Amino acid sequence: MNENVKFHAAGKFTSRGEWIHGSISVPTTEIIIVTDGCVKLEENGIRYDLTPGAVLFLDSDTPHRGYEPTLERVSFYWIHMKGYDCHADSAPEKHFTLREPYHVSILCRQLLHYNTIGSDSEITSSLLRVLLHELSLQSRGDDESSNALARRINEWIRINADRSITAPDVALKFGYNEDYISRLLKQHYGIGLKAQIDGHRLRLIKRYLLESDLTLAEIADTVGFSDYKLFLKFFKYHAGMTPGEFKRIYYAIHTNNR
Question: Which of 131, 144, 156, 183 sits a CA distance of 20 to 30 A from 176?
Fold first, then answer.
């Protein structure tokens, strides 16, 4: 891993109205992690349309700019670091899309939180290295030995986490017995079918809590809860706290708007 990498600065940008990234060149490597909208950037003549979940590493001392304005709301984490070696064996790909955005969002929020409260540079640099490790894992995909069916089922559950899907729904979709699917998922992911469904749904809720301006009632509706009280009960049971308490954990972050 990039053991010599040092944290320099970070924040979360959110646009208001029409916006385009200015032309700039900085002496640090920058990570862009998009959470909302489409960020249109160009570096070395290559254009990138970065949609939610997209990650882009911008090279140090290399000009980059927005090549087209966006009218919609865009939001992304930006992280500057020194000493990054893009040629290291453990380095993530330059540009890719996250498979599990929630895990990265949590790490970004932690990094920004500790930076904002003035933590020692070794702490923020250590957190940055953990983030880089997670990005490396997600950019290179699952282990090749992982069962293809388990991956397909897991991905389908993740994509449909905003619906009120059940274990029988999954069994019907893939044509296998519920018990067999549960054993298969437990073998490859450490948890059974019901826990996998609840886990993906919980991560989606947490992502909305951290990355959107939706009210709790709107989030409940978006993730398929027709009963608001059931939504609150589900979250409290699985997360061990209320949605409001969860949001307050990561209250201290550097945000900039334009």
Answer: 144
